[in-house]
Structure formats: structure tokens, C-alpha cells
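Office hours follow-up: a student asked to see two folded examples consecutively, so here they are.
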Amino acid sequence: MDLTVVAYVIYLLVSVGLTVWVARTLSRNGRIFLGDVLHGNEKLADAVNHLLVVGFYLVNLGFVALYLNQDGGVADARGVFEAVSTKLGVVLLVLGALHLANVFVLNKIRRRGLMEREQVPPVAPQGWVAPTVKA
């Protein structure tokens, strides 16, 4: 078997495995965060969480597939490790960047929601008091 094909198989197995693991972790822990961002609306939080996970899979698996191409052939075992480690490093950086971008956007939404909640007075006004005129 050609060593380039071995590098491809290792790269695909590890990349897809990492993508699934990160997506599940983000889905499980992100649901709690989304519940807070969306003011406790659990159905909406579940729907948004599912859509984010689907988008995460599409972007990451698409990137993994596009990045599969190897410019040169792999000649020996050292070349297999170098090719796989380079490709996995880039995939991990992309996974991390997408994760940070996701958290940044959701945190912005969360902060905006907190600010909106703080602008509403905690108690409705009870009446009106006329200003006093000082002589």
C-alpha cells in the first residue's frame, strides 16, 4: 500500500474523530450557555444548539476534505508522521478558531441580553410626585 494513502487514512480517521468529539463537547456544554443567552427558552436553545452543531460539522468536515490533498508523495514512515501532523495541526487550529468565534458571538449576544434586562426597572412606578419649587 502506498504510504500517501496510509497518511490519508490516518489523517481522515483522526480529523473526523476530533471533529465529532469537539462537536459533542460543544453541544453538551453549549446548551447550558445558550439557555442563558436565550433567557431560559429551552426549546429555542435546543434548536439553535442543533443548528450550530450541524454548521460546525459542515464547515469542519468540508475543510478536512478540502485539506486532504497532499502536494508531494510520502516516501517513508517519517514522511507519514510529518504529513499527518501538519494536516492535523491545521485542522486543530481551525477547530479552535471556529470555537472561539462561536463563543465570542454568543457572549456578545448574552451581554446584550443582560444589558437589556438591566435597563428595565425592577419595580414598576407606583405613582407620580410633583417637583417641589424652592423659593
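And the second, which I mentioned at the end of office hours:
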Amino acid sequence: MTDRELVLTRIVDVPADKLYRGWTEPELMKQWFAPKPFTVPVAETDVRPGGSSFVVMKGPDGNEYPNRGVYLDVVPGEKIVFTDAFTEAWTPSDKPFFVGTITFEDLGGGQTRYTAVARHWSVEDKQAHEQMGFHEGWGICLDQLVEVARAL
């Protein structure tokens, strides 16, 4: 881990393929992608290297937080790498913040080692993400993802 990375790793009792579906199917993403009481009214994905994503998180106060990004690498059922450095195709964003890598390691017996790595452009961005509640927020979202994936 570098001084610009935040990492969340947990072993969960859900098969890797179901967690991957939760990350790639828009209707499933809407159910878990933001920590409650936030909601996700919009989730659009084109899950392939170079494909774009658009996710809107809506706060309990009604404010919406649109997030555009591009997938850099995708290994179905195993890994998703995405960034907000691009908004679509290869159009640069106004302010790149991080590259996210999600891995789903099948441990057998229905268990998966889930790892989320956020690699930031600067130490300051990493610290800001940490202060925004990376570990708590991403942990809550993982709990919500596990709940959704178990129902598949």
C-alpha cells in the first residue's frame, strides 16, 4: 500500500460471481451503491475496458451527486478497475480523484475475499477521501452489497 491508497478487505459469505453482478448490473447497483439513507436513482454501466459508467447518489436532503467514470480493466467475476479521470470514452474529467480496483477472490465454499482499493492522484486527495469516511462508507456499502447478492 502506498501513501495515496485506501484499502478495504473483507471475507464475505457470498460467491464472487454474485458480488460481481452487484457491481455491474444497474438495477442491483441501485440497491446498494450508496450508504443508506442515500439512494441511487440512476445507475448506467457499459462494463468493458473503455466503457463508461454514470451513477447518481441522492442524499436525504435531496441533493444529487453525479459520478461519471470509465472502466479501465474488467475480468468478469474477478476484477473491475475504474476511474473518474475520464467522464466518457477518453474525455478527461475536470478533476480526477482516484482509480478504483475491486477484486473478488473465490475462496471456495461460497466465500470471497473482497478487496476495494482507491488509488488517489495525491496524498491530499487520499486524506480528503479518508476524512469523507472511506472505510465506514465503503464498509456500509459492502454490507448492503452482500445483502443484495445473497438474494440472487
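Two things to take away from it. The first strand starts at residue 5 and ends at 12. DSSP finds four helices and nine strands in the chain.
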